[in-house]
């Protein structure tokens, strides 16, 4: 093929027709996150097979995984799985679709933030930059805790399933497991810092605190670092 690209289009109906009519054609972010571990495991097996067949370079596996997961989460489960076997072709992938993961060691454990590499309100289907956090101990077990986000500017938002819409929750919010987003209109040269407090699961006690640095590049918010 001219572009040496194999596309495996996944257009399977994930819900019965009646359910789709009642709930809309797209699955909610909560739906997608509930099956993300199984989907990620499938992608890992597929990536291993693609590498074995020479369809994907070993050094591109992580980037390929992040792109596929980002496409899946932003397109309501109706994405495409793409096997690339032209070296360097992943560099042409849309970064506003690609998932981004930042990690930092804290006193409470290893913190991982799952977000986007770039967030553009014009090009993304999401209402804001996703802020999905997990924390694990030295053995890789998830630590029971709560996450409090503090945004000096912009707005924090969650999906209200009862109301069927995204709602603003203010400048400070303790995550309750629902997908959380942050939005501020990007302006070139703008920088921002969000604060994340890791709280004890029961007591109102801070276990650790980190800062998420963001900047605007080419009209998109780009998460730079957590520290």
Describe the structure.
The protein has helices at residues 17-23, 29-52, 61-74, and strands at residues 5-9, 80-84, 99-106, 109-116, 129-130, 132-136, 145-150, 155-160, 165-170, 172-174, 180-183, 191-200, 206-217, 220-226. The chain is an alpha+beta fold and 227 residues long. The radius of gyration is 18 Å and the shape is globular. Residues 1-25 have low confidence and may be disordered.
Quick structural gist:
With 227 residues, the protein is of the alpha+beta class. It has 3 helices and 14 strands.
Largest sheet: 5 strands, antiparallel
What class do helices, strands and sheet pairing give?
alpha+beta
Strand order within the widest beta sheet:
10-7-12-13-14
Number of domains: 2
Can you name the CATH architecture of the largest domain?
Sandwich
Distance between the termini: 45 Å
- CATH class category label of the largest domain: Mainly Beta
Please write the string of helix (H) and strand (E) elements: EHHHEEEEEEEEEEEEE
The number of helical segments is 3
Relative helix content: 10-25%
Portion of residues in beta strands equals: 35-45%
Give the number of DSSP strands.
14
Query: Which spans have pLDDT < 50 for at least 5 consecutive residues?
Result: 1-25
Keywords: Signal
Signal peptide: 1-21
């Amino acid at each position: 093929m001219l572009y040496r690209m194999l596309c495996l289009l996944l257009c399977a109906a994930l819900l019965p027709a009646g359910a789709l009519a009642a709930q809309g054609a797209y699955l909610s972010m909560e739906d997608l996150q509930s099956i993300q571990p199984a989907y990620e495991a499938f992608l890992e097996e597929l990536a291993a097979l693609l590498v074995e067949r020479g369809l994907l370079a070993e050094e591109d596996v992580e980037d390929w995984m992040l792109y596929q997961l980002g496409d899946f989460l932003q397109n309501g489960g109706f994405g495409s799985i793409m096997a690339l076997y032209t070296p360097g072709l992943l560099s042409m992938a849309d970064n506003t679709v690609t998932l981004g993961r930042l990690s930092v060691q804290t006193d409470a454990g290893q913190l991982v933030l799952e977000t986007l590499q770039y967030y553009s309100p014009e090009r993304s289907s999401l209402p804001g930059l996703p802020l999905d956090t997990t924390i694990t101990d030295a053995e890789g077990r998830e630590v029971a805790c709560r996450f409090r986000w503090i945004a000096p500017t912009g707005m924090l938002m969650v999906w209200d399933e009862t109301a069927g819409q995204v709602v603003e929750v203010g400048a400070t919010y303790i995550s309750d497991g629902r997908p959380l987003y942050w939005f501020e209109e990007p302006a070139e040269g703008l920088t921002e810092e969000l604060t994340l407090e890791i709280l004890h699961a029961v007591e109102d006690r801070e276990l650790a605190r980190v800062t998420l640095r963001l900047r605007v590049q080419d009209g998109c918010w780009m998460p730079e670092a957590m520290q």
